[in-house]
Specification:
- There is one protein chain.
- Helices cover 90% and strands 0% of the residues.
- By secondary structure, the chain is mainly alpha-helical.
């Protein structure tokens, strides 16, 4: 009984293979051979390119979720490319060209020398002193502006009313209250300047000792 069952199965297999051979045409055989050849060529190229070494890396990226993030980034870049219009691309190119031109002009204008000078100032501690003194200078800009404006007004007034000359004219000028105040201001300024200069020389001498 078992032998008869095996014989029947073999007979059915032979009928099946025969029917398959009859159904396969020469065109189908050629297509199958072409597909098999392409598959073998692809496997050969994969082996020669070393792509098999990248499979563990890709598996690790997929396990960590990095591969998904890379795919999201690629989709975001693709969406950005689709959103960019020709006008936007032209503007970006123009801005990039202007930036490169500015860098070139800075390089030709001695930017490296400026950087070297700043490095020397930093090494000497002068840059820190400048940074500390700059707020005080900015706070006194109004005083400097007032000083320059008053000097300009004094020059204009002297041109409009030239001095009469002689001791009598000098005496008349000294009797005016404004002249006395101005003279007192200059004297006070001279005393303060002398005191500051003497204090600076004393501090320098102390530091030299």
């Amino acid at each position: 009984m078992e032998a008869q069952g095996q014989g029947g199965a073999l007979c059915e297999w032979e009928h099946l293979t025969g029917a398959a051979r009859d159904a396969v045409t020469d065109d189908m055989v050629a297509r199958l051979a072409e597909a098999a050849s392409a598959a073998l060529e692809l496997l050969d190229r994969v082996n020669r390119s070393g792509l098999a070494k990248a499979v563990p890396v890709l598996a690790q990226m997929a396990h960590n979720g990095d591969l998904e993030r890379v795919a999201h980034f690629a989709r975001a870049v693709g969406a950005a490319e689709e959103a960019l219009t020709e006008e936007m691309v032209a503007r970006l190119a123009e801005a990039a060209g202007a930036g490169l031109g500015l860098v070139d002009r800075l390089s030709r204008g001695g930017l490296d020398r400026l950087v070297a000078m700043l490095e020397r100032l930093e090494a000497q501690g002068a840059l820190e002193r400048i940074a500390q003194a700059l707020p005080r200078v900015l706070a006194r800009l109004e005083t400097v502006e007032a000083l320059l404006a008053s000097l300009e007004q004094a020059v204009e007034a002297a041109e409009r009313a030239p001095a009469a000359g002689g001791l009598r004219g000098l005496w008349r000028l000294l009797k005016e209250a404004q002249s006395q105040q101005a003279l007192g201001l200059f004297l006070a300024w001279g005393r303060a300047l002398k005191k500051r200069l003497q204090g600076g020389e004393g501090a320098g001498a102390a530091s030299g000792r």
